[in-house]
Amino acid sequence: MATSVLYNGDCSFEMNKIADRSVELILTDPPYNLGNFMINRSTNLSKMRDNFFANAGWDNLEFDDWVNHMDNFFADAARIIAVGGSMIVFMSIIKVETIIKLAEKHGFYYKTTGIWHKLNPMPRNMNLHFVNSTEAWVYFTYKKKTGTFNNENKMIHDFIETAVVSNGEKKAGKHPTQKPVALLNHFIKLLSNEGDLVVDPFMGSGSTGVACKQSNRNFIGIELDKEYYEIAKKRIEGGI
Question: How many distinct structural domains can be found in the chain?
Fold first, then answer.
């Protein structure tokens, strides 16, 4: 039976509790460091739900400070991940190049950058410009050019379409940048096997943990915010 272990704290410290080479998949959605970018564009952050991240943790750091934090994260990731293990990092498209350089510095092999297309995005300012309906994800393997890839001899595209978080999931998770469980399950089933250990160092309200429970993967999640940590515990225990 799969197990879940959750830590409330900064991943810079909590990842030290994870054994070397014990992780088959790191699946995570770290801060995009768009806070100052949004503020400088005079974005009304208080009224824009999707931009709440601009007030949260690393997202409000100066760019060089954020890079330093992410560099430390990749160093920790390189220690805990198994040779041939996989990593998916959700990221703003304007920061993807930085993420690739940092990951490669620590021994990760860059595979591809893919897109998550939201089928029902918020139609904000739809009469003024393009509706923001996509987010990027970056795929790496560690020290090898290939890893687990359970495609069952089917073509798997680097373009994934799902609805945004359902009302039921949103009510349970309550996180402003919450990803749908179906999206996370797509990566978990493709890039790991039952019984493997999956880690999310930026757990938020626990959607990766819920997906791992549904897919019979062991899970370690880390979340800095106490409120979201408690929500994650409740969600993962209930499988929602």
Answer: 1
